[in-house]
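User: My collaborator sent over this chain with a note saying "see what the structure looks like." That's all I know about it. Can you take a look?
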Amino acid sequence: MIQSRLTFWGKWTRFGFFLINLCVIIGLIMVPKNKPSIVELGCFILAVIFAITMSLIVVMKIRNISVDNNKISYKNWLTGKLRNYNFKDLEGYITIVKPIGIVYKEHESIILIKENKRIGEISAFYYANYDKLKDG
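Assistant: Without extra context I'll predict from the sequence alone. Here is the result:
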């Protein structure tokens, strides 16, 4: 069985999730009880939108992955929800190369397909042992 290991960016994304949500909570506590200015209100609204976006990215993209001889398992690290897929039930997979910013030119991802739907992804951007997961 092969377990996933996060890259620096995968770990940083998880850390950012907690940091941003902590900032929003602190912002809620520290918002003055009297009438806040438009700038304070605007900054707070942007922080909330950013926190929700980061939360969705973290919850949707970064999962603990286990690859066995017959199946692949995705476990959401935040909710603990586990999904198992047998390889014989999958229709196949697609390998894509995604561009990422200026620093990282591109990275490879494998998208698993079942019943013409995308059910999971293994990305070299988030997982340090991507090659082992891919070959596993």
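A starting point for your reply to your collaborator: The two ends are 8 Å apart (CA to CA).
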